[in-house]
Amino acid sequence: MTENVLLIYAVGLALTVPIAWSLGANDAANPTDCAVGSGAISMKKALALFALFAALGAILQGYMVMKTIDRGIVPRIDLIGAFIVVLSVCIWLFLCTWRGLPVSTTHTTVGAVLGYGVAAYDVSQLNVNVIFNVFLAFASSPILSMLLAIGVTKLIEFGLPRLVKTPYKLDKLISAMLIGSLIFSAYSFGANDIANVTGVYVTVTKEIGGMPDRETMLLLALLGSGGIALGGFTWGYRVIETAGRKITRLNLTMGLSAELSNALTVYLFTTIPYLLFGWGLPVSTTHSSVGSIIGAGLARGIKSVNRYTVLKILAAWMLTLPCAFLLSLAMFKLVCWLLM
After folding, report:
1. Distance between CA 248 and CA 250 in Å, rounded?
2. Which of 5, 46, 98, 161 is the most buried (most CB within 10 A)?
3. CB–CB of 282/69 below 8 Å?
4. Which of 211, 191, 210 minimizes the C-alpha distance to 199?
5. What contacts 303, CB < 8 A, 6 or more positions away?
6. What is the pLDDT of residues 26-54, one digit of tens each?
């Protein structure tokens, strides 16, 4: 193994740390926005729970989606490809986080992997079935979380007051349930989103280190989890403010229904496809989270949703995948030209 190969690998793997930081800073809002926005927990405590349970999700179930990112979309991501994908994701996420936009890390990663795949392989070599299922999950996950949030909001508003008669005790119960759903949502986030950064390095790390798949994924999950926690604590508050308070004002009931809907949606897309087909689907936890908040807002009327903020977020989402695709494709072509 040449020194150049080791250098490129070391630099690329080092880039996963700021990528993980950007992931935590941009996506810490997904499990925490509802709890913070409704006032059930402070920002600092929510971020501490996020860091702990996102790490557990990444360690225990992160391999389900890592496999999809590593070799589900394209046949194989080589050393140069992994470096280009990671750099492209890092650049786009940093720009969007700097602007305070809850942009989808999953869309960014999938767009960058597709850009590399189109540049490095014949289109016929791409796994069309997996790509189709990923895009289907992109479209259906926010709709599912929104519909779940509408239904759960109505169910909670109808059922809980009949079980707990005292308003004070009812608020306490909902607050406790909301913190529990935050934990579940953070776990689901870690299981799904850890692949967005570390997934591209599974094959390369396995080949260089001579380790089995599962041990390689565990090592990369540990590396990514540390960066995610750091990003959440240092810059996550920026996007939490946008997602939790500016889309719609949340009360405890709305926060609980939105958080439960988000957690269930992400966990189901992570786990069920893997158990059935061997590929966990990388869904946008940002899409799911914001969709659930919109659903909770719609449950009490369209006027409660800040449509300007929603449109601003949608514009960022629509730009993400094509921008990441083009950035990754152009950078890979440029590197190949320079190495010729």
Report:
1. 6
2. 46
3. yes
4. 191
5. none
6. 778 778 877 787 778 888 999 999 999 99
Task: Look at phi and psi of residue 26 and say left if phi exceeds 0, alpha if psi is from -120 to 50, else beta.
Answer: alpha
* Concatenated DSSP letters of 144-158: HHHHHHHHHHHHHHH
Each residue of 218-232: pLDDT tens digit? 999 999 999 999 999
Identify the burial level of 55 via C-beta atoms within 10 angstroms of its C-beta, where 0-12 means exposed, 13-18 middle and 19 or more buried: buried
Q: Is 100 helix (H, G, I), strand (E, B) or coil?
A: coil
Interhelix angle 3-27/29-38, nearest 10 degrees: 20
Q: What is the reported pTM?
A: 0.88
Beta strands in 245-299 (DSSP E): none
CB-CB contact of 198 with 17 (8 Å) = no
In sequence order, which residues have a C-beta less than 8 Å from that of residue 201 and are 6 or more positions away?
12, 13, 16, 82, 86, 220
Cβ-contact 190, 62 below 8 angstroms: yes
**What is the distance between the alpha carbons of residues 106 and 265, in angstroms, rounded to a whole number?**
15
- Nearest-Å Rg of the Cα atoms of the chain is 20
- Spatial neighbors of 287 by CB under 8 A, at least 6 apart, are 104, 138, 141, 142, 145, 317
Amino acid sitting at position 184 = F
Q: Which amino acid is at 231?
A: G
For residues 16 and 198, the answer to whether their CB atoms sit within 8 Å is yes
User: What does the alpha-carbon distance between residue 296 and residue 150 come to, in Å, rounded to a whole number?
Assistant: 5
